[in-house]
Design brief:
The complex is a heterodimer.
Chain A lengths: L3 E8 L3 H12 L4 E5 L5 H5 L2 H18 L15 H25 L3 E4 L1 E4 L4 E6 L2 E13 L3 E3 L12 E2 L1 H4 L8 E5 L3 H12 L3 E6 L10 H13 L3 E4 L3 E7 L2 E6 L2 E5 L1 E4 L3 E3 L6 H4 L3 E2 L2 E2 L12 E3 L10 H15 L14 E3 L4 E6 L2 H6 L4 E7 L4 H6 L5 E7 L5 E8 L2 H13 L4 H5 L10 H10 L7
Chain B lengths: L3 E4 L9 E7 L6 E2 L4 E6 L4 E5 L4 E6 L6 E3 L3 E6 L6 H4 L54 H4 L33 H8 L5 H10 L17 H8 L27 H14 L4 E9 L1 H12 L8 H15 L5 E3 L4 E3 L5 E3 L1 E3 L2 E3 L2 E2 L7 H16 L13 E5 L18 E15 L2 E15 L5 H16 L2 H4 L1
Parallel strand pairs in B: 12-16, 16-17
Antiparallel strand pairs in B: 1-8, 2-4, 2-7, 3-6, 4-5, 6-8, 9-18, 10-11, 12-15, 13-14, 17-18
The chains are: A alpha/beta, B alpha+beta.
């Protein structure tokens, strides 16, 4: 059978793949998209979106449990975990359909199946309907994403040892769980399970939870989680995970943990196997596909974006890369991505969001810094909401006022961070934030106050 | 099918690039043909650009502050239902990839768009409450305290005592606040706040930098490259800020100065100039002018208006001077469109008084003043800057006895006008005092010869010395 010809063939329709496909179509290119699961990839189906739905459930449970604070009397509270997962699935289904709709709207042809490079310009799709060959006249965009990693000697069976893939699907929750890894994924699931009454133990090899965040953020989140009854052990190395006890026995250099299940959240690795990278001659670097600033791989005409192209493994970074790749393919000159200005967000309670350098990193880089911190306990809006845990911390260059990094723990932290993302894109300094009137009362005022604090001029503390 | 392509107009004969100063209409605005869409800076002046079609301004492709070559698509006017995707890409036609499918059918009515997949999920955000009547922590405003000021030294403590003890000191670098704002006002430099601060601290003059940010905005890396000695490779070399005592500075050419520099040799070298000078007795014209200017309700008339009128009348009788060399032929004009050189701070510009031969002195006075006024404010429209058949350059106000001017091709001649001076003159009775003015005509020898130029000048002289002829 003759190969079907398209300008661009996109392999994988996660946030990087579908955005690049749509951008290519917008630029007048004909696009084929290949997906071996469901459109939307891990993000929409098994990651970002369904976990946000679960976390919202956890938040609602938490709110109802403290209804008394608001003078609301509730009867016996029953939180149905299976229902939470079902709601999460329906949210994911809706979003996946949204991607299919966007594909139709943009005349993108979706090929269900597994895509494999057969040459520098052709991709073979193996699906339920048979095998087809797609020929890319202009470019191939690889966006196959990533998959959960495990510890050596520990197999993820999605029954006892589960990954986020299993956790997001299982309608039953264990009575106890050991979460290995205190990054965003580990902390978010710890939050959800704990809200529904599971006994959670978080094990982290590094000295603190959310190790990529500013130390102040890690310290506060650790304290708040511990206060909620979540056991957190940092600086411990897991030596083995074996059946036994209630289900599994986790041996660490800091003692033994028994739990019904283990959630493996030690990170994700690029999905590069089976893509046919060797066939086409695409080279890897430290486990990820090596790319140029316009996302082109070592092979001309083959682009790679998203998780497979390297850290940070974040959906919004993948989307931005998808746009850059599409525009480069269309002959434009896209602005390269500023990887120092990618917000990082964890949606546990309280939320954690950051951008740029931590205070320690800024100092390590030899910057003389001025730091301003404002606690939500001093924010009228946060007090009114009854959500006063957290702070906004601004790290700036002392001489120029350059905003080097911002770290937020607290209500809607993941929304507030964008003020600083825009500011940094525009090269605003503390003064521009200072002279921006922030509506009162809002949580965002804390951003202004932290900025003022860095200048030694905070009003409300 | 009313899709109107908005292209960078050719607003003067030698214009190659134009810069959008600002868009007066935004994407989505409804446009009537003839509406002013944008202001464009050319090598000559700032010009208003008109719409040549009606519809909705669907797309702006060249943002304010950016330059584009003449003829480049800079915007699209079309009805909302029109498909402009074939025009639309931010990059223009030559680079735009060939669409494999011939055209994207327009789909103006889509079913309700689902919210962007990645942003859904978490539900209701808290609605912002209106500020309470009594905010929990009322805020005082104290501008002085909120603007870090270098004056806030020990002898001048901050007006406010709010600074909590132990909080980090405010940046003490004297240059930190906004010294660069001055240069911003002076030269409209587009620069990021951070770039401005670093420039102020490192002594880099932002005006000398070419920004690499969006729309030529000077961003941090430009300043850092400049202060590091221009070692940034791709960055254009940059002059350090001028310190007292340096021997010279190189000022970048303004578009206008560049145009003059490019244009004048194109005249002087290929156009064989010759010059004819004549002294004019201006006594009668002077007193006539005083009489006219004493009339109530009449526009004030300048000496130059007399010269314009005299030239316009004379040109009709000397078509050999009102002519242009065209290579294979000589084009002789039957109308006198007189260019009037107007000096600006950074160059000059020659607006054109059209059909001057058909206009009276009063009308010439009014129009010439209006043109000069708008030329100084760079508010001329394109047609007002081209099409002269003859030009006049007057340096009389600068106490110049006489000078010779360079012809502005394709015109055939230009008249240089000196001051009206009070000088001793020989009269029939002996010596007296008279008002005299020197006129020097520069002529293109390819078009005319000395005698032709001289005869024209003689006529101009007669008209000015018998000025009532200018009124009839």
């Amino acid at each position: 059978m003759a190969a079907k010809k398209f300008d661009v063939v996109v392999v994988g329709t996660g946030p990087g793949g579908y955005v690049s496909a749509i951008r290519c179509a917008q630029l007048g290119l004909s696009v084929a998209a290949i997906e071996d699961d469901r459109p939307g990839g891990v993000c929409l189906n098994w990651g970002c979106i369904p976990t946000k739905a679960l976390l919202r459930n956890a938040e609602v449970v938490h709110l109802i449990q403290r209804a008394g604070d608001f003078g609301v009397t509730v009867g016996e509270v029953k939180a149905d975990y299976a229902h939470a997962v079902k709601r999460s699935r329906s949210v994911a289904d809706r979003m996946a359909k949204g991607v299919e709709f966007l594909f139709k709207k943009n005349k993108i042809t979706l090929f269900p199946g597994t895509g494999t490079l057969k040459s520098k310009t052709t991709v073979e799709v193996k699906g339920a309907a048979g095998t087809e060959t797609l020929e890319a006249a202009r470019a191939i965009i690889l966006a196959t994403g990533s998959q959960p990693k495990s510890l050596p000697g520990v197999t993820i069976d999605e029954k006892l040892v589960i990954s986020s893939n299993g956790a997001v699907r299982n309608e039953t929750r264990p009575k106890s769980i050991a979460v290995i890894g205190a990054g965003a994924v580990g902390m978010e699931f710890a939050d959800v399970y704990a809200a529904y009454g599971t006994q959670v133990t978080v094990l982290e090899a590094l000295p603190r939870v959310l190790p990529v965040e500013d130390e102040d953020a890690s310290t506060l989140v650790n304290r708040l989680f511990t206060r909620r009854g979540i056991a957190i052990k940092t600086g411990v190395k897991v030596s083995s995970v074996k059946p036994g006890g209630p289900g599994l026995i986790v041996e660490t250099d800091g003692g033994r943990v028994e739990a019904e299940q283990v959630l493996m959240a030690v990170g994700r690795g690029a999905r590069t196997a089976g893509v046919g990278l060797e066939t086409a001659g695409v080279t890897l670097e430290r486990g990820y596909v090596k790319v140029s600033p316009t996302m082109e791989t070592s092979v001309k005409g083959i682009y790679a974006i998203g998780d497979m192209a390297g850290p940070p493994l974040l959906a919004h970074k993948a989307m931005a890369e998808g746009v850059v790749a599409a525009e480069a393919i269309a002959g434009q000159h896209p602005r390269p991505i500023d990887y120092t200005n990618v917000p990082s967000c964890t949606y546990c309670r309280p939320q954690v969001a950051s951008i740029g350098f931590s205070e320690a990193k800024a100092r390590e880089n030899g910057r003389e810094v001025q730091v301003g911190k404002f606690p939500f306990t001093a924010s009228g809006k946060a007090v009114a909401l009854g959500e006063t845990d957290g702070f906004v911390k601004v790290v700036a260059d002392k001489a120029s006022g350059e905003i080097l990094g911002v770290h937020i723990v607290g209500p809607e932290a993941t929304e507030i961070i964008h003020e600083f993302a825009v500011g940094r894109t525009l090269e605003a300094t503390l003064e521009e934030i200072m002279h921006t009137i922030h509506a009162h009362p809002t949580l965002s005022e804390a951003a202004l106050e932290a900025t003022l604090a860095a200048l030694g001029q905070a009003i409300h503390i | 099918m009313a899709v109107t392509k908005v292209v960078m107009p050719k607003l003067s004969e030698q214009m190659e690039m134009g810069k959008i100063i600002k868009w007066l209409k935004q994407e989505g605005d409804r446009i009537q043909s003839g509406d002013i869409l944008a202001e464009v800076e050319t090598d000559k002046a700032d010009v208003e650009m008109e719409a040549f079609g009606s519809g909705v301004l669907r797309k702006i492709l060249v943002p304010a502050g950016s330059q584009a070559p003449v003829g480049t698509l800079i915007g699209v006017i079309a009805e909302p239902s029109e498909d402009i995707s074939q025009l639309g890409g931010p990059d223009m036609a030559p680079q735009t990839p060939q669409a494999a499918q011939p055209a994207k059918p327009s789909e103006p009515t889509q079913p309700a768009k689902p919210s962007a997949p990645a942003t859904a999920g978490a539900g209701a955000t808290e609605m912002a409450n209106r500020p309470a009547a009594v905010p929990p922590m009322p805020r005082r405003e104290d501008h002085a305290a909120r603007t870090p000021s270098p004056a806030a030294g020990p002898e001048a403590p901050p007006a406010s005592t709010r600074t909590a003890p132990g909080t980090p000191a405010r940046p003490s670098a004297p240059a930190a606040p906004m010294p660069a704002a001055a240069s911003l006002e002076g030269g409209r430099v587009k620069a990021s706040p951070l770039a401005r601060k670093i420039a102020a601290q490192s002594g880099v003059d932002l005006k000398l930098l070419q920004g690499s940010g969006p729309g030529g905005r000077v961003v941090r890396r430009d300043v850092e490259a400049a202060s590091a000695g221009g070692g940034g490779g791709a960055r254009p070399a940059v002059m350090p800020a001028v310190a007292p005592g340096v021997e010279f500075e190189d000022r970048p050419l303004t578009p206008m100065r560049a145009a003059i520099a490019k244009r004048m040799p194109l005249s002087k070298a290929p156009v064989p100039h010759f010059y004819v000078t004549s002294e004019i007795a201006m006594d009668r014209a002077w007193s006539l002018r005083e009489e006219l200017n004493a009339l109530e309700g009449q526009p004030k008339i300048s000496v130059n208006d007399f010269v314009i009128r005299a030239c316009a009348v004379a040109l009709l009788h000397h078509s050999g001077v009102n002519a242009s060399f065209q290579g294979e032929s000589i084009r002789v004009f039957h109308r006198a469109h007189v260019g009037i050189a107007v000096a600006l701070d950074d160059g000059l510009i020659t607006p054109v008084l059209r059909d001057a031969h058909a206009k009276g002195l009063a009308q010439i006075a009014v129009e010439a003043r209006d043109l000069a006024e708008r030329a100084r404010h760079r508010k001329l429209r394109a047609p007002e800057m081209s099409g002269a058949t003859f030009s006049i350059s007057n340096l009389g106000m600068l106490d110049v006895t006489e000078f010779s001017a360079i012809i502005n091709p394709p015109e055939g001649a230009i008249l240089a006008v000196g001051s009206v001076r009070t000088v001793p003159v020989v009269t029939e009775d002996g010596l007296g005092v008279g008002r005299r003015m020197m006129l020097t005509l520069s002529c293109d020898h390819r078009v005319m010869d000395g005698a032709m130029g001289a005869r024209f000048l003689q006529d101009v002289k007669r008209l000015l010395e018998e000025p009532l002829r200018l009124l009839v």
